[in-house]
Each structure stands twice: as structure tokens, then as C-alpha cells.
Design a protein that fits this description.
Protein name: Polyprenyl synthetase family protein
Pfam family, one: polyprenyl_synt
InterPro entries: Isoprenoid_synthase_dom_sf, Polyprenyl_synt, Polyprenyl_synt_CS
Distance between the termini: 33 Å
CATH architecture: Orthogonal Bundle
Strand content: under 5%
Shape: globular
Number of strands: 2
CATH superfamily: Farnesyl Diphosphate Synthase
Strand order of the largest sheet: 1-2
CATH topology: Farnesyl Diphosphate Synthase
Number of domains: 1
Oligomer: single chain
Order of helices and strands: HHHHHEEHHHHHHHHHHHH
CATH class: Mainly Alpha
Cofactor: Mg(2+)
Family: Belongs to the FPP/GGPP synthase family.
Length: 336
């Protein structure tokens, strides 16, 4: 469905995240109950760590996408609730592993699991959550959904490894970076909407539209994360500002700054990426500001949201469709 054939979508009613959540409140409560039921383990430490990370105050955007997509397709049934819980388990497993890889000590305003219990238990409980999600996936008995989610876990792992190989490498291009965030972030957003459409046996063109919607929303979400890592407030974000630079991650604001700064600014940013740490944070931010790299990154995120919204034209008008449009807009307007 080429985007060139689409007309501009009509404006959707403005909607807060709380209002969006209210649309699926009963379903969300069912997802939360299922998540807590599935956290049971004969090993107490597994339950303790899994419960800590799963119930640590995340927005649960990905399971929300599952529920809203199902509502937009007119059928939010118990299998959809199960899929939403599976998606959240997969996401939580990646968080446990990411925090170990990134040596992070703060997430959502709380100490990370690896900061509290150590790296080894965090990795192993992440493995437990991956395994539990596939136990639940088998119960769905839907080969198409199993194919989508098994492929998704492979792509996410590849994206994380690719990001790891890019650390402290200032030679990463914008195209290479977009490939990384497609794998490590957008892929699970995409699986949330695509998997729901497949589960409900939506027409092929609708499945493809929802797949692209999820992908573009995920890209926008990560691009705004890149901005907030430099512009955000640590108390609001629940993590340390400047973590990306401290770890030597060449995210889009830095990539754009290097491409558009003068020679002195380019060398400064390149050296900061290679070195890692925050010693030159102020100088780097001056280069990023002078090249309008934050504005550029936001414009890329806004373009992703526009493409996401265009895909929803295939869906019938409904409060859930409006909520999907509003959620995409919230993704680029958020401060946390």
C-alpha cells in the first residue's frame, strides 16, 4: 500500500495517555492479572526479581498497542490478553539483559535489578521471562503469531549486538543507526501490532498496515528517547541524563552533529564518543545545539509518526483508532 496514494488523515481528537488507558482498562487489568499469575516459579529469587522488574512502574506501551489494535479490529478476546502479556514478558526480558550489557544502575527511578542482585541473576531471570513467554505463546497455538514473535526475538538480539559493536565508534552513519534502532526497539512495537492483526486473522493489507504503524511508532519512540537522553530531566526520566554519551553510544543527535559541525566541533564529538564518559558533556551539547541536531532528530520522529498515522486509514473509524493516532502523537510530545 504505497504511501503516495494516501490522503492526509483527518485530525483525531486530542487524548491523554490516561484517557487512552481508560478505553482498555478492563483488558489491561486482565493482562496484569495474567502477568502476575505467570511470574510464579519454584525458585524464590526468580519470582522476586521478575516481580520487581515487571511491576516497577513502566508505561506498558507495547501491551497497550496489542489491546488498542484488537479493539480497532473489533475483537479484544482472551487470546489478545495473552498476547499482550507475552509481549510485556519479552520486553521485560530485554530490559534485564540491556541493563547488564549497559551496566545501568537506574531505571524508572529505581535501582536496576543488576544493581540490586547482580549481573548473573538478572541475566538468568531474563532468560526465565523469555522462556515463560514462549510457554504462553505455545498455548495460543497460532503458527503465524509464533513465526512473528520468534523472528522478532532474533532481530532484537541482532540489534542489541549491533549496537554493542557500535559503542565508541564515531563512524556510524545515520542509515546504520536507523538499522540498529529498528532491531532493538521498533521490532517489538511492530510485533505488537502485527501479531495482534495476525492473531485476529485481519485481511493481509490490514495486517501490513498495522505492522508498519508499529514499526514507525517504535522508531519515533526511540528517536525521542535519544533526544531526552540529553534534554530530559533525570527525575522525570527515571534514569541518568547523558547515559548514551557516557557509554559512548553514537545516537542520532551526535551523528547529525558530526555531519554538520565545523572541523573543531566534529573532532570534539568524535573524541567524546571514543572516550565515553561525561567530561565534555557541555562542549558536546554546544556542538549539538549549534547544528540543530535535536531539532533534526525530532523532525525525523515526527515524520515516522506521520507515516504511522497514514497506515491507519484502512481501519474503520472508532475510539480505538483515534487512540492509536493519539498514542503516536504522544510518543513524540512526551517528556519521559
Amino acid at each position: 500500500m504505497p504511501s503516495s496514494t494516501m490522503t492526509t488523515p483527518s485530525p483525531a481528537p486530542s487524548m491523554s495517555l490516561a484517557a487512552i488507558l481508560a478505553q482498555v482498562d478492563d483488558d489491561f487489568q486482565a493482562v496484569n492479572r495474567l502477568i502476575n499469575d505467570q511470574l510464579s516459579s519454584r525458585v524464590p529469587l526468580v519470582e522476586k526479581i521478575a516481580d520487581y522488574i515487571v511491576n516497577s512502574g513502566g508505561k506498558r506501551i507495547r501491551p497497550l498497542l496489542v489491546l488498542l489494535s484488537a479493539r480497532a479490529l473489533g475483537n479484544c478476546n482472551p487470546d489478545v490478553v495473552r498476547l499482550a502479556a507475552i509481549i510485556e514478558f519479552l520486553h521485560t526480558a530485554t530490559l534485564l539483559h540491556d541493563d547488564v550489557v549497559d551496566t545501568s544502575d537506574l531505571r524508572r527511578g529505581n535501582p536496576t535489578a543488576n544493581a540490586k542482585w547482580g549481573n548473573a541473576p538478572s541475566v538468568l531471570v531474563g532468560d526465565f521471562l523469555y522462556s515463560r513467554s514462549f510457554n504462553m505463546l505455545v498455548e495460543l497455538a497460532n503458527l503465524k503469531v509464533m513465526d512473528i514473535l520468534s523472528s522478532t526475538t532474533c532481530v532484537i538480539a541482532e540489534g542489541e549486538v549491533l549496537q554493542l559493536t557500535n559503542v565508541k565508534n564515531p563512524n556510524i552513519t545515520e542509515a546504520q543507526y536507523m538499522d540498529v534502532i529498528q532491531g532493538k526497539t521498533a521490532q517489538l512495537f511492530e510485533a505488537s501490532t502485527h501479531g495482534t492483526a495476525a492473531l485476529l486473522q485481519a485481511p493481509d493489507d490490514v495486517q501490513e498496515a498495522l505492522r508498519i504503524y508499529g514499526k514507525e511508532l517504535g522508531l519515533a519512540f526511540q528517536l525521542i528517547d535519544d533526544v531526552l537522553d540529553y534534554e530530559g530531566n533525570a527525575a522525570d526520566l527515571g534514569k541518568n541524563v547523558g547515559d548514551d554519551l557516557a557509554e559512548g553510544k553514537p545516537t542520532l543527535p551526535l551523528i547529525h552533529a558530526m555531519a554538520h559541525a565545523d572541523e573543531t566541533g566534529r573532532k570534539l564529538v568524535r573524541q567524546a564518543i571514543r572516550k565515553g564518559g561525561l567530561d565534555n558533556m557541555d562542549e558536546v551539547m554546544a556542538v549539538v545545539t549549534s547544528t540543530r541536531s535535536m531539532e533534526y532528530t525530532r523532525s525525523k520522529a515526527n515524520a515516522c509518526v506521520q507515516r504511522a498515522e497514514q497506515q491507519l486509514q484502512l481501519l474503520p473509524q472508532s475510539p480505538a483508532k483515534d487512540a492509536l493516532i493519539a498514542l503516536a502523537r504522544i510518543a513524540v510530545q512526551r517528556k519521559t
